[in-house]
Amino acid sequence: MKAAVTEKSVLKVPKPEGLDAQDRPVKVLVVDDELIVRKLVTQVLKSAGYEIVGEAGDGKRAVEMFRLRRPDIVTMDVQMPIMDGLEALEQILQVYSKAVVVMLTNRQEKELVTKIIKAGAKDYIVKPIDRKLILAKLRKVRGISY
Predict the structure, then answer these.
(1) Whole-angstrom Cα distance, residue 18 to residue 104?
(2) I want to staple 71 with a disulfide (CB 3.0 to 4.6 A). Which of 2, 23, 29, 129 is the partner?
(3) How far is CA 127 from CA 57, 65, 75, in A?
């Protein structure tokens, strides 16, 4: 005899954390001059349900892509060619003052971290990239706690 399927017997699958309150993927622009770092960040975020709307290898291209794609969040390296991440952050904030940018850096000096936050970044991540850390930082800047 078959057991009846009830609402209580169906397993609830948690929704991916990369979805917003309306169950739409949060759009992210990934910016880093190192291809391997961009691919790693992209892979981590996609696996959590985020939508990658673009990748850039320098700050100038990041600003252009921000204007075109209007991502919900930008992850951006500090040190890049053509235009560094801090200058790109400043220009992105001129385009949209409420932009959510999380900076990536190889350095953890207090002076640099202070400069990043004063420039308007919502948070920062010290490389190497760690899956749990990047997802936690994005939850934090989105105001979500798990």
Answers:
(1) 19
(2) 29
(3) 16, 23, 12
Cα radius of gyration (the chain): 18
| Diameter of the chain measured on Cα atoms | 70
Structure confidence by residue, pLDDT tens digits, 10-37: 667 777 888 888 889 999 999 999 999 9
**By three-state DSSP, how is residue 118 classified?**
helix
Domains along the chain?
19-141 (3.40.50.2300)
38-84 pLDDT tens trace? 999 999 999 999 999 999 999 999 999 999 999 999 999 999 999 99
For 11, which DSSP code? Answer: P
**Cβ(75)–Cβ(102) below 8 Å:** yes
CA distances, 146 to each of 12, 72, 139 (Å): 16, 20, 8
The full length of the chain comes to 146
Q: Which amino acid is at 119?
A: A
